[in-house]
C-alpha cells in the first residue's frame, strides 16, 4: 500500500494576535481522505488555526503547507489555485445578508468565472438539492432561514467548486439535536460521495462518534494529541477528561462502529433526493 498523502502540514507554528501568543510550536498533519476533528476549549485558538490553514492569518514562526504548497511563500497565482481546491463553512455561516440563497451559493462560481454563465443555475440547484434544500429555498434571504438551513446553504456554497478539502467550523453548533443529526448524516454521505478530506472544529461528541477518523486536541497552545477517538478520549488531560465525561463507555472501536451503523439504518435521509443518493427513482 502506498504511503498516505499529507494534504495539510503544519510545522512548528507560533501565532501571536493582539500581543498574545495563541499557538506555540504547533504541529498537525492531515492526510488525504481523512476527517479530522479539532477540539479544544473556547478561546484555545481553533478558529485561528483554521484561519492559518486558509492563509487568512500569517504565523510568526513555523510553516503551513496545503497540497504541498507553503502558504506564506507561494506566488499569488499558486495561492489562488490552492484556494479554489478548498471549501469553508465559517463558524457563523458567513452568508451575505443582502444576497438570496441562490446568489450566496453562486458567488464562488461567479468570482472564479470557471464555468459559462448558463451553467451557474444548474450547478447551484444541484448543490442545493445535494444539501437537502428545496428549489424554492433558492429565493429566500438569509434572514428567512432557520439555523439548520443556514448551515446547509453555507455547506452548499463551500461545495460549489467541488473542493477536495473542506473546513468546517462548528457545523452543528446551535442546531437542535435532530437537525444536528441530519447535518452529520449529510456530511457522512457527502464525504463518501465526494471523497473529501475534512477538518472540522466541533464541540459535539455525537458528531465525533458519527464521522471522525482522528481527533486533534488543541490545548496549552499546541496540538497535544491527534489520534483515534478511543485513544484520545482516554488521555489524562483535564480538558479531554471533561470533554468526554459520561461518553467514555461509547469510545471502544466496536461501539463507534455500532453507533455509525445505527445512523445508516434510520430511514430519514434529511431531504436529499433519492436520485442524488444513487437510488433508482420510478
Ligand atoms: N483578530 C484578533 N486579534 C486579537 N486577538 C484575537 C483575534 N482573533 C482571535 N483572537 C484571540 O485569540 C484567541 C483564540 O480565538 P479563537 O477564535 O481562535 O478561539 P476558538 O478556539 O475558536 O474559540 P471558540 O470555541 O469560542 O470559537 C482568543 O483569546 C481570541 O480573543
Ligand atoms: Mg472558534
UniProtKB/TrEMBL annotation:
This is ATP-binding cassette domain-containing protein. PROSITE patterns: ABC_TRANSPORTER_2 (PS50893). Residues 8-245 form the ABC transporter domain. Pfam families: ABC_tran. GO terms for molecular function: ATP binding. PANTHER family: PROTEIN TRIGALACTOSYLDIACYLGLYCEROL 3, CHLOROPLASTIC. SUPFAM superfamilies: P-loop containing nucleoside triphosphate hydrolases (SSF52540). Keywords: ATP-binding, Cell membrane, Membrane, Nucleotide-binding, Transport.
